[in-house]
Amino acid sequence: MTTATTRPEQAGAARPQLTTPEPDHGPQRKRKRDRVWLQVVCIAITLFMAVPIYLIALAAFSTRASLNEFPLDLLPTNFSTETISVFMQSTGVIPGVINSIQVGLATLVLSFIIGIPAGYAVARFAFRGREPYQLFMLFTRALPIVVLSVPLASLFLNVGLYDSVLAVTLLHSALALPTAILITASIFVGVPADVEEAARIFGCTPFQAFRKVVLPMAIPGIAAASIFTFVMSWNEVLGAAILTLSHRTLPAQVLSSLSDSPLAYRFAGGFVLVVPALVFIFFMRKYLTNMWGSTIR
Amino acid sequence: MTAAPASTVAPPPAMPTRARRRRTPALWLIAPSIVFMTLMFAYPMLVGIGEAFTGPDGFTLEHIQRMVADPYFWPAVRNTALLIVVLIPLQFVLALTMALMLRAKPRFSGLYFFLWAVPLAVSDLAAGLVWLAVFTDQGYLNSVLADLHLPTFSWLNYQNYGTMFLTVVIAELWRATALVFVILVAGLQSIPKDYEEAAAVFGAGTWASLRYVTLPLLRPSLQVALILRTILAFQTFAVAQALTGQNFPLIVGETYRWSTALQNPNVASAIALVVMLASMITAVFYLRLLRDQSEAKT
């Protein structure tokens, strides 16, 4: 912003003082033209990103009858909550939502109980094996989910965990843990060690210093990371579909009933699955680059 | 957490003991994560390899043979490879364009960033359903065509392989470019604009500056995005499932089919191993490729 907007102004302000007869407007005009083109391309990309979301919302909030007509209306002329409410009343959808929320929250708690101490250790201590440990975590992040889900299914069958919220939670925690460790580590690096040492000098035990001083300062970042974990769990389809049969999460439920459901059901399902993404990115837009910027190092 | 009381001794002033004392709590703190990851990753992986290669009477290649003989297997491999080869370059060009445009700070850049990042949190199943609303026979694209009095087209018909592939590419381009975009924006933020300004002072045009200044500085981010994105691209399946059902098989979708519809964990494990091998080979390949280049340059 600064470089681009101030420069033409400077040029304009400087003109009366300098007595150059004919200022060259060429570069300035080219700059203006560039800005217009920039906006045009930006708007085109925005349309590509936003129009599909508008359309799925439109489809989800149209009457079922209007979805069977052709051509479809491109404006919300048939607004109704019928399609959405029929979807919500279909078998397995409400339990699916509940299961999804349960799995998401449990994943959050489990991956953070294990991940926060580890992230703290990575951020604060230069212990032997720190590099291999971080490599190990990166490596696990790179493993495809299928590789785990299929063997885990037979494993959980043997121990009686198959088709339970706990089974999906365990899988999702394993997927979320590396990210949780990397994100919390980057958050704890941002909390100065001096504060913690000051707390220790004033008589806190290491645990007290952590709980009363470090944790409150890290809470905003941890909240951001936890929303990220929740959405990851909410979005995960394959593992949840393989590990469950009757206690499905919402995406698994939608996936398994895809082939024998009407279009209206699928549109409503798509919309319900997209909504958390909108909310998530809205709250996280300030943190996104920090989170990715730090997790990748 | 349980490990914290282990070091409740008053802080000793001497440096050597301090250094030794620090090692112990760290190991205690990371121990739970190591145990958990070993249980959830290493163990299932071994079980999976076992399932793929053992039958009722010991070692067997029967499951591999069944996997290879399945009529959906080779189309799935071909589709997955084709999708990756076409999609990833498109995605990087688009993401780089988006990131560089935001770097130029247009008006409303905050709004643009939000809208462009939204698909980051959309699952591939949801993305498939979103684009299904567009591409299905009586969907929005055909409605627009009909409104304009143009002939409609059944984009998702199994006879039209080309358009079926195109719809999957578009849906994936829409959904997964955001990941590359956000990583590249983060990478660009750490590059001071001074470098580009210096290049401009020395007479470099936009392209030269991009080619010789910005892109080399962006290499670490590009490398991470490339590896992450390719590994994730191998796992794409719900998009195709939502858009085309079984007509456009992808390799992970085959694992899902063998595991759920056909109830055969052995073949499912064998396919899963193929996916894992392919991901690892590409990751190593990228690391080699990008590292070699940077060493040659310096």
Describe this structure in words.
The complex is a heterodimer of chains A (297) and B (298). Helices cover 77% and strands 0% of the residues of chain A. With 297 residues, chain A is mostly helical. Chain A folds into two domains: 23-85; 91-295, MetI-like (MetI-like fold, Orthogonal Bundle). The longest helix of chain A is centred in the N-terminal third of the chain and has 35 residues, at 26-60. The relative contact order of chain A is 0.11. Mean pLDDT of chain A is 82; it is low at 1-14. With 298 residues, chain B is an all-alpha fold. Chain B has a two-stranded antiparallel sheet with strand order 1-2. The chains are: A mainly alpha (297), B mainly alpha (298). The interface between A and B is large, with 103 and 107 residues.
Enter the CATH topology name of the largest domain in chain B. Answer: MetI-like fold
Topology-level CATH name of the largest domain in chain A: MetI-like fold
User: Tell me, what's the shape of chain A?
Assistant: flat
CATH homologous superfamily identity of the largest domain in chain A:
MetI-like
SSE topology:
The complex is a heterodimer of chains A (297) and B (298).
Chain A: H1 2-14, H2 26-60, H3 64-68, H4 82-89, H5 93-124, H6 130-142, H7 145-159, H8 165-190, H9 193-201, H10 206-235, H11 238-243, H12 250-256, H13 263-284, H14 288-295
Helix pairs in contact in A: 2-13, 4-13, 5-8, 5-10, 5-12, 6-8, 8-10, 9-10, 10-13
Chain B: H1 15-53, E1 54-55, E2 58-59, H2 62-69, H3 73-103, H4 109-117, H5 124-135, H6 140-147, H7 161-189, H8 193-201, H9 206-217, H10 219-234, H11 238-244, H12 251-261, H13 265-297
Antiparallel strand pairs in B: 1-2
Helix pairs in contact in B: 1-13, 2-13, 3-7, 3-10, 3-12, 5-7, 5-11, 7-10, 7-11, 8-9, 10-13, 12-13
